[in-house]
Automatic annotation (TrEMBL), chain A:
Keyword Membrane attached: yes
Keyword annotations from UniProtKB, A to Z: Cell membrane, Membrane, Transmembrane, Transmembrane helix, Transport
Transmembrane segments: 36-53, 94-120, 141-166, 186-206, 234-257, 289-310
Family note: Belongs to the binding-protein-dependent transport system permease family.
GO cellular component, as recorded: plasma membrane
Protein name: Sugar ABC transporter permease
Matching CDD domains: TM_PBP2 (cd06261)
PANTHER family, per database record: BLL4140 PROTEIN
Membrane topology: Multi-pass membrane protein
Occurrences of domain ABC transmembrane type-1 (ranges): 95-310
GO biological process: transmembrane transport
Subcellular localization, as worded in the UniProt entry: Cell membrane
Organism this protein belongs to: Paenibacillus glucanolyticus
Automatic annotation (TrEMBL), chain B:
Record keyword DNA-binding present: no
Organism listed in the record: Paenibacillus glucanolyticus
Pfam family, one: BPD_transp_1
PROSITE patterns, sorted: ABC_TM1
Recorded family membership: Belongs to the binding-protein-dependent transport system permease family.
Keyword field contains Protein transport: no
Chief localisation class: membrane
Protein name: Sugar ABC transporter permease
Transmembrane segments: 12-37, 81-100, 112-132, 144-164, 186-208, 267-287
Residue ranges of coiled coil: none
Length: 323, 302
């Protein structure tokens, strides 16, 4: 019981007779919780400076950026950079590589955590289950540099573990890292190895919410385990699946370029060059700031449109959507 | 349930298949990890010929000796620890108070702030404008270029907010206010001590992120004395610069010498993978439930 608290509360009761009461209480609520604005200030500043700041900088996509003139002072050129990008000989290659890697990753990498989570959910034996979970989650914590290093080492033509394995089985090992035909498979399968286990957690959370009585009733009715997965567990995780699918579709042109950048080499470039690695190379390596920003903007706009479109479709066809 | 109800034959078969499936998953994930551990202490000639496939053969600690002799590894380790600790502290200072404010239903304007933050999840300025901004702020070649542009993640703010909403009873806050407790004291004295699980989860999520990141260091740092561990790892593992290092005494025309050099380089790679990854992988099983909890809290909202 402190006097400050009393005095902060008592005006509340006396001043309420003023006509503009609603506005007044709103203002008073803001004053009373003034510290909360202090709490949110660092995050507010962070998002304004480091997220909205670069959005202001997007205008250089429509300008010829000259460092000495700055973002605001550089001359406008309209859609020149976009036209140059769309007409360039590499445009369709970049688009194809980006789309095909994303869709390949989605086709293989999206269903596997769901299947693994359903399998975990059937196991009651806790030590075995915990061991498999701990081990399959672990690769999630390996850094992208170490992961790429492992891929390069394992696929090394003379001595790599996987090359030895393939040759031990009596096959001719392909040039995994230098043959463009293999790049996408290497990228997708290594991603599956690294993230399938971790990806199950969100589905396991959804599965833990299934009412056990549903299963008991189904058992009484003679439903097999498989039937119960099909008719109880899968419907229970459909909302989670839908949301994750929408989010994945929204980043379809945003393939994880950190790993691609590390695995790229001049020989596999034909299938490994995607829009985001191209943005990095033309923007930061070759310092074509405006052109690269235009390419990046094209990428984000397509992503945003895809996300909105997929979300609309999901909203029309089911009750699950992001907004 | 399985003990209470008698399993039918098809269910037993299903369970057996399920166990086989999980065992295969276990082996596929575990084998490469064990292989790296074994390869890092095996004679490289057995490793490259494929004779060493699981159990270490011709045990040698030469790889580790060379890794620890390498001054860059120590520099990288030191820098990474500094960036991880400072970065994580900044992350927590930005994330937790903001998440708490957003969790309060009597916070006027929380819808506005939430919307402002959420937009950045779906649309951003892109690589070059962000780079130019960091450059204009004069942070190139400084530690802050690695820390401030990633000072918070909207995802983690949402996860923390959900935690505060579901674990801090509204009555507690009201009672504290009636007792004249300020929001500031309420947060420090009552909310934070009740929120240790979420603080641990956030520290771990952000900490692992800092430990493993290389891209911002690669584009913002030019001075190799400031490089984090991951950049030196990139030189050794991806650009394979170690192979060219320290080989001056060996006659390059000799084929066997070249082979030995390549083998030593491979040995060093396995050892360096272990050295760089062990801190994270070693603490992870003990903290696994926190990590998992973090994802679960997020999924409630997600």
């Amino acid at each position: 019981m402190q006097p400050d608290g009393k005095s902060a509360l008592s005006p509340d009761l006396s001043v309420n007779t003023i006509p503009n009461r609603k506005k007044n209480t709103l203002w008073r609520r803001m004053i009373r919780n003034w510290e909360l604005y202090l709490f949110i200030a660092p995050a507010f500043l962070y998002f304004v400076i480091f997220h909205y700041g670069p959005m202001y900088g997007i205008q250089i996509a429509f300008k010829n950026f000259i460092p000495t003139l700055g973002v605001t002072g550089s001359p406008w050129v309209g859609f020149d950079h976009f036209v140059r990008f769309f007409n360039s000989y590499y445009f369709w290659d970049l688009l194809w590589n980006t789309l095909s890697i994303s869709l390949y990753e989605l086709a293989i990498g999206f269903p596997l955590p769901i299947i693994l989570a359903l399998a975990f959910n059937e196991v009651r034996d806790s030590f075995f289950k915990r061991t498999v979970q701990t081990v399959t989650y672990a690769p999630h914590f390996i850094s992208v540099v170490v992961m790429s290093g492992m891929i390069i080492t394992f696929l090394s033509p003379s001595s790599g573990m996987i090359v030895n394995l393939v040759e031990g089985l009596g096959f001719q090992a392909p040039q995994f890292l230098t043959d463009p035909a293999w790049f996408k498979t290497v990228y997708v399968l290594s991603g599956v190895w690294q993230s399938t286990g971790w990806g199950t957690i969100i589905y396991l959370a959804a599965l833990s919410g299934v009412d056990p009585q549903l299963h008991e009733a189904a058992v009484v009715d003679g439903a097999s385990r498989f039937k119960r997965i099909l008719h109880i567990n899968i419907p229970a995780i459909i909302p989670t699946i839908t949301i994750l699918l929408i989010l994945n579709m929204g980043s379809i042109l945003g393939v994880g370029f950190e790993k691609i950048l590390l695995l790229q080499n001049p020989l596999n470039m034909g299938s490994s060059d995607v829009i985001s690695t191209f943005v990095y190379r033309s923007g930061l390596v070759d310092a074509q700031y405006s052109f690269s920003t235009a390419v990046g903007l094209f990428n984000s706009v397509v992503n945003a449109i895809l996300l909105i479109a997929v979300n609309q479709i999901a909203r029309r066809t089911s009750e699950n959507s992001l907004w | 349930m399985s003990s209470a109800v008698k399993e039918s034959r098809s269910d037993k078969l299903f369970l057996v298949c399920n166990y086989i499936y999980l065992t295969i998953a276990l082996v596929i994930v575990l084998y490469p990890l064990l292989y790296i551990v074994s390869a890092s202490i095996s004679d490289p000639k057995y490793v490259s010929s494929g004779e060493m496939w699981l159990i270490p053969k011709g045990i040698t600690f030469d790889g580790y000796a060379r890794v620890f002799e390498n001054a860059n590894i120590w520099i990288g380790y030191k820098n990474t620890i500094i960036y991880t600790v400072v970065g994580t502290i900044v992350n927590l200072i930005v994330t937790l108070p903001a998440a708490y404010a957003l969790s309060r239903s009597d916070f006027v304007g929380r819808g506005f702030f939430m919307a402002l933050f959420l937009v950045t999840m779906f649309f951003g300025g892109g690589l070059v404008p962000s780079y130019l901004l960091v450059k204009d702020l004069g942070m190139v070649n400084s530690m802050w270029a690695l820390i401030l542009p990633g000072a918070a993640s909207i995802w983690n703010i949402i996860v923390s907010r959900t935690f505060f909403q579901s674990t801090i009873p509204k009555e507690l806050q009201e009672a504290a206010h009636i007792d004249g407790c300020t929001n500031f004291r309420l947060f420090i004295r009552i909310v934070l001590p009740l929120s240790m699980p979420i603080i641990a989860v956030m520290a771990l999520f952000y900490g692992v992120g800092h430990w493993n990141s290389y891209f911002s260091a690669m584009i913002y740092l030019n001075d190799s004395a400031k490089y984090p561990l991951q950049l030196f790892l990139r030189q050794i593992l991806v650009l394979q610069e170690m192979a060219a290092q320290g080989g001056g005494a060996i006659d390059a025309s000799s084929a066997t010498a070249m082979n030995t050099k390549a083998e030593i380089a491979a040995l060093v790679k396995y050892a360096v993978i272990i050295v760089a990854t062990v801190p994270v992988i070693a603490i992870y099983p003990f903290l696994q439930r926190y990590f998992v909890q973090g994802v679960m809290i997020g999924s409630v909202k997600g």
